[in-house]
Predict the 3D structure of the following.
Amino acid sequence: MRRLDGRAQTGKGSAPLRIAIVGSGGAAFAAALKAAEQGASVTMIERGTLGGTCVNVGCVPSKIMIRAAHVAHLRRHSPFDAGLSAVPPVVDRKRLLAQQQGRVNELRHAKYEGILESNPAITLMRGEARFRNGHTLAVRLAGGVETDSRTLALENVPRALANFDTRGFIKLVAEAGTGRLLGAQMVAAQAGDAIQAAALAIRSGMTVDDLAGQLFPYLTMVEGLKLCAQTFSKDVKQLSCCAG
Protein backbone atom coordinates (compact mmCIF):
# COMPACT_ATOMS: atom_id res chain seq x y z
CA MET A 1 0.00 0.00 0.00
CA ARG A 2 1.28 3.51 -0.88
CA ARG A 3 0.90 6.52 1.41
CA LEU A 4 0.53 10.08 0.19
CA ASP A 5 3.70 11.11 2.00
CA GLY A 6 5.79 9.30 -0.59
CA ARG A 7 6.62 6.24 1.48
CA ALA A 8 5.75 2.62 0.84
CA GLN A 9 4.45 0.74 3.83
CA THR A 10 6.06 -2.65 4.23
CA GLY A 11 6.41 -5.10 7.05
CA LYS A 12 10.07 -4.22 7.52
CA GLY A 13 9.69 -0.44 7.46
CA SER A 14 9.35 2.11 4.71
CA ALA A 15 11.17 2.75 1.45
CA PRO A 16 11.12 5.78 -0.87
CA LEU A 17 8.36 5.71 -3.46
CA ARG A 18 9.63 5.70 -7.06
CA ILE A 19 7.40 7.36 -9.66
CA ALA A 20 7.66 7.40 -13.45
CA ILE A 21 5.99 10.24 -15.36
CA VAL A 22 5.52 10.01 -19.12
CA GLY A 23 6.06 13.40 -20.75
CA SER A 24 7.56 16.68 -19.57
CA GLY A 25 4.83 19.26 -20.09
CA GLY A 26 3.23 21.55 -17.54
CA ALA A 27 1.07 18.85 -15.94
CA ALA A 28 4.01 16.43 -15.82
CA PHE A 29 6.19 18.97 -14.01
CA ALA A 30 3.42 19.84 -11.56
CA ALA A 31 3.04 16.14 -10.72
CA ALA A 32 6.80 15.65 -10.46
CA LEU A 33 7.27 18.59 -8.12
CA LYS A 34 4.42 17.51 -5.85
CA ALA A 35 5.71 13.95 -5.72
CA ALA A 36 9.24 15.15 -4.95
CA GLU A 37 7.90 17.38 -2.17
CA GLN A 38 6.29 14.28 -0.64
CA GLY A 39 9.63 12.44 -0.66
CA ALA A 40 9.33 10.41 -3.86
CA SER A 41 12.09 9.76 -6.38
CA VAL A 42 10.78 10.78 -9.81
CA THR A 43 11.87 9.71 -13.29
CA MET A 44 10.45 11.83 -16.10
CA ILE A 45 10.46 10.24 -19.57
CA GLU A 46 10.42 12.54 -22.61
CA ARG A 47 10.76 11.56 -26.28
CA GLY A 48 10.77 15.09 -27.67
CA THR A 49 11.54 18.63 -26.56
CA LEU A 50 11.51 19.30 -22.83
CA GLY A 51 8.47 21.32 -21.78
CA GLY A 52 5.80 19.72 -23.94
CA THR A 53 3.29 21.61 -26.04
CA CYS A 54 2.56 24.81 -24.13
CA VAL A 55 5.96 26.47 -23.90
CA ASN A 56 7.37 25.12 -27.18
CA VAL A 57 4.63 25.15 -29.82
CA GLY A 58 1.37 26.01 -28.06
CA CYS A 59 0.35 28.70 -25.60
CA VAL A 60 3.57 30.71 -25.38
CA PRO A 61 4.58 31.08 -29.07
CA SER A 62 0.98 31.53 -30.19
CA LYS A 63 0.33 34.29 -27.64
CA ILE A 64 3.52 36.06 -28.73
CA MET A 65 2.34 36.09 -32.34
CA ILE A 66 -1.17 37.15 -31.36
CA ARG A 67 0.30 40.07 -29.42
CA ALA A 68 2.54 41.01 -32.35
CA ALA A 69 -0.47 40.93 -34.68
CA HIS A 70 -2.41 43.15 -32.28
CA VAL A 71 0.42 45.69 -32.19
CA ALA A 72 0.58 45.63 -36.00
CA HIS A 73 -3.17 46.23 -36.15
CA LEU A 74 -2.96 49.19 -33.79
CA ARG A 75 -0.22 50.75 -35.88
CA ARG A 76 -2.51 50.51 -38.88
CA HIS A 77 -5.82 51.35 -37.17
CA SER A 78 -6.66 52.73 -33.74
CA PRO A 79 -9.37 54.87 -32.08
CA PHE A 80 -6.94 57.82 -32.17
CA ASP A 81 -6.23 57.94 -35.91
CA ALA A 82 -7.62 61.48 -36.10
CA GLY A 83 -4.80 62.78 -33.93
CA LEU A 84 -2.17 60.05 -34.35
CA SER A 85 -1.27 59.22 -37.91
CA ALA A 86 -1.41 55.49 -38.71
CA VAL A 87 1.60 53.87 -40.36
CA PRO A 88 1.28 50.39 -41.89
CA PRO A 89 3.98 48.22 -40.26
CA VAL A 90 6.70 46.43 -42.22
CA VAL A 91 6.78 42.80 -41.07
CA ASP A 92 10.22 41.19 -40.85
CA ARG A 93 9.13 37.59 -40.32
CA LYS A 94 12.66 36.27 -39.74
CA ARG A 95 13.35 38.71 -36.91
CA LEU A 96 9.87 38.24 -35.47
CA LEU A 97 10.33 34.46 -35.33
CA ALA A 98 13.78 34.90 -33.78
CA GLN A 99 12.28 37.10 -31.05
CA GLN A 100 9.52 34.55 -30.49
CA GLN A 101 11.97 31.64 -30.24
CA GLY A 102 14.22 33.61 -27.91
CA ARG A 103 11.41 34.08 -25.40
CA VAL A 104 10.39 30.42 -25.75
CA ASN A 105 13.96 29.37 -24.97
CA GLU A 106 14.09 31.68 -21.95
CA LEU A 107 10.87 30.30 -20.48
CA ARG A 108 11.82 26.69 -21.18
CA HIS A 109 15.07 27.17 -19.28
CA ALA A 110 13.46 29.06 -16.38
CA LYS A 111 10.38 26.86 -15.92
CA TYR A 112 11.63 23.43 -16.97
CA GLU A 113 15.40 22.99 -17.44
CA GLY A 114 16.20 25.10 -14.38
CA ILE A 115 13.82 23.08 -12.20
CA LEU A 116 15.49 19.83 -13.23
CA GLU A 117 18.93 21.27 -12.50
CA SER A 118 17.91 22.40 -9.01
CA ASN A 119 15.90 19.33 -7.97
CA PRO A 120 17.97 16.15 -7.53
CA ALA A 121 14.83 14.11 -6.79
CA ILE A 122 13.68 14.48 -10.42
CA THR A 123 15.61 12.71 -13.20
CA LEU A 124 15.01 13.15 -16.93
CA MET A 125 15.21 10.10 -19.20
CA ARG A 126 15.24 10.57 -22.96
CA GLY A 127 13.14 7.96 -24.71
CA GLU A 128 9.68 6.72 -25.63
CA ALA A 129 7.57 5.01 -22.96
CA ARG A 130 4.79 2.48 -23.45
CA PHE A 131 2.74 0.54 -20.92
CA ARG A 132 3.03 -3.21 -21.45
CA ASN A 133 0.35 -3.82 -18.84
CA GLY A 134 -1.06 -2.19 -15.74
CA HIS A 135 2.18 -2.62 -13.82
CA THR A 136 4.97 -2.52 -16.42
CA LEU A 137 6.37 0.48 -18.28
CA ALA A 138 8.82 -0.14 -21.13
CA VAL A 139 11.14 2.64 -22.30
CA ARG A 140 12.96 2.72 -25.62
CA LEU A 141 15.89 5.03 -25.04
CA ALA A 142 16.37 7.81 -27.57
CA GLY A 143 19.51 7.89 -29.64
CA GLY A 144 18.82 11.23 -31.26
CA VAL A 145 16.58 11.85 -34.28
CA GLU A 146 17.86 13.69 -37.35
CA THR A 147 15.11 15.71 -38.96
CA ASP A 148 14.33 17.36 -42.27
CA SER A 149 11.72 20.05 -42.84
CA ARG A 150 10.04 22.04 -45.58
CA THR A 151 8.09 25.31 -45.43
CA LEU A 152 5.56 26.22 -48.10
CA ALA A 153 4.43 29.81 -48.53
CA LEU A 154 0.69 30.18 -49.09
CA GLU A 155 1.28 31.84 -52.44
CA ASN A 156 1.79 28.25 -53.66
CA VAL A 157 -1.60 27.04 -52.37
CA PRO A 158 -4.41 27.51 -54.94
CA ARG A 159 -7.12 28.05 -52.31
CA ALA A 160 -5.13 30.86 -50.72
CA LEU A 161 -4.79 32.50 -54.14
CA ALA A 162 -8.53 32.15 -54.74
CA ASN A 163 -9.14 33.75 -51.36
CA PHE A 164 -6.84 36.69 -52.26
CA ASP A 165 -5.09 36.02 -48.93
CA THR A 166 -1.64 34.45 -49.16
CA ARG A 167 -0.51 35.45 -45.68
CA GLY A 168 1.00 32.55 -43.76
CA PHE A 169 2.77 29.26 -44.40
CA ILE A 170 2.66 25.48 -43.92
CA LYS A 171 5.59 23.59 -42.42
CA LEU A 172 6.20 19.84 -42.17
CA VAL A 173 8.93 18.13 -40.15
CA ALA A 174 10.00 14.57 -40.96
CA GLU A 175 12.59 12.07 -39.81
CA ALA A 176 15.60 12.21 -42.10
CA GLY A 177 16.11 9.02 -44.08
CA THR A 178 12.69 7.48 -43.47
CA GLY A 179 10.54 10.52 -44.19
CA ARG A 180 8.25 9.67 -41.26
CA LEU A 181 6.16 12.69 -40.32
CA LEU A 182 7.05 14.14 -36.93
CA GLY A 183 5.31 17.51 -36.84
CA ALA A 184 3.28 20.09 -38.71
CA GLN A 185 2.60 23.81 -38.38
CA MET A 186 0.06 25.94 -40.23
CA VAL A 187 -0.42 29.70 -40.14
CA ALA A 188 -3.37 30.33 -42.43
CA ALA A 189 -7.08 30.96 -42.62
CA GLN A 190 -8.96 27.74 -41.77
CA ALA A 191 -5.76 26.29 -40.32
CA GLY A 192 -7.69 24.96 -37.34
CA ASP A 193 -9.74 22.75 -39.65
CA ALA A 194 -6.88 21.61 -41.88
CA ILE A 195 -4.38 20.77 -39.13
CA GLN A 196 -6.50 17.79 -38.04
CA ALA A 197 -5.52 16.00 -41.25
CA ALA A 198 -1.86 16.49 -40.33
CA ALA A 199 -2.46 15.18 -36.83
CA LEU A 200 -4.07 12.02 -38.22
CA ALA A 201 -1.20 11.53 -40.67
CA ILE A 202 1.35 11.76 -37.86
CA ARG A 203 -0.73 9.49 -35.63
CA SER A 204 -0.89 6.79 -38.31
CA GLY A 205 2.87 6.92 -38.96
CA MET A 206 2.65 8.25 -42.51
CA THR A 207 5.71 9.44 -44.41
CA VAL A 208 5.95 12.59 -46.51
CA ASP A 209 5.67 10.40 -49.62
CA ASP A 210 2.46 8.86 -48.24
CA LEU A 211 1.01 12.31 -47.62
CA ALA A 212 2.19 13.60 -51.00
CA GLY A 213 0.38 10.72 -52.69
CA GLN A 214 -2.97 11.30 -50.99
CA LEU A 215 -5.95 12.72 -52.84
CA PHE A 216 -7.17 16.02 -51.41
CA PRO A 217 -10.08 18.07 -52.79
CA TYR A 218 -8.88 20.82 -55.12
CA LEU A 219 -9.21 24.39 -53.91
CA THR A 220 -9.23 23.50 -50.22
CA MET A 221 -6.74 24.72 -47.66
CA VAL A 222 -5.99 21.16 -46.55
CA GLU A 223 -4.60 20.54 -50.03
CA GLY A 224 -1.66 22.67 -48.87
CA LEU A 225 -0.50 19.77 -46.66
CA LYS A 226 -0.10 17.59 -49.75
CA LEU A 227 1.71 20.35 -51.63
CA CYS A 228 4.08 20.91 -48.70
CA ALA A 229 4.79 17.17 -48.56
CA GLN A 230 5.56 17.22 -52.28
CA THR A 231 8.24 19.89 -51.75
CA PHE A 232 10.44 17.20 -50.18
CA SER A 233 10.93 15.72 -53.64
CA LYS A 234 9.82 18.28 -56.26
CA ASP A 235 9.28 21.95 -57.03
CA VAL A 236 5.52 22.49 -56.68
CA LYS A 237 5.78 25.77 -58.56
CA GLN A 238 6.28 23.71 -61.71
CA LEU A 239 3.03 21.74 -61.22
CA SER A 240 -0.23 22.44 -62.99
CA CYS A 241 -2.92 23.79 -60.69
CA CYS A 242 -4.83 20.49 -60.79
CA ALA A 243 -1.95 18.05 -61.38
CA GLY A 244 -0.62 17.76 -57.84
Q: What stands out?
A: The CA atoms of residues 51 and 175 lie 21 Å apart. The longest strand covers residues 122-131. The chain has two domains: 7-52+102-141, 147-231.
